[in-house]
Design goal:
The strands form 2 sheets. Strands 2-3-4-5 form a 4-stranded antiparallel sheet, with no helix packed on it. A 3-stranded antiparallel sheet has the order 1-7-6, with no helix packed on it. 0% of the residues lie in helices and 49% in strands. The chain contains no helices and 7 strands. The chain starts with a strand and ends with a strand.
Length: 99
Amino acid sequence: MIRILIQPTPNQTMAIALARQTAQIALRQNGPDLYFELTSNRVSIVRTRICRDRQRILLDMRYRGFIGDFAFVDTRGTDDPQWYGLGSRFQLFYLAAGE
């Protein structure tokens, strides 16, 4: 499990290498929900996936060519992630295959 550093801003995009894969992650707050988008090697893996506490985001999208998954964890309870707590209260983790 690898913690991904994110900022407490409502909209952000980052590029990171994970398990020898390039990943471009976008987080967008829209109303009460935070949405996750992932592109890898210029291929869209998921778009507009709602983020929930301790729930896998990709749900085994290996067939689209990305290995692993992501999950948010609320370090102070079980609330779903909100932009103002990103990086501190709400942390994003990459889960390698098999985790």
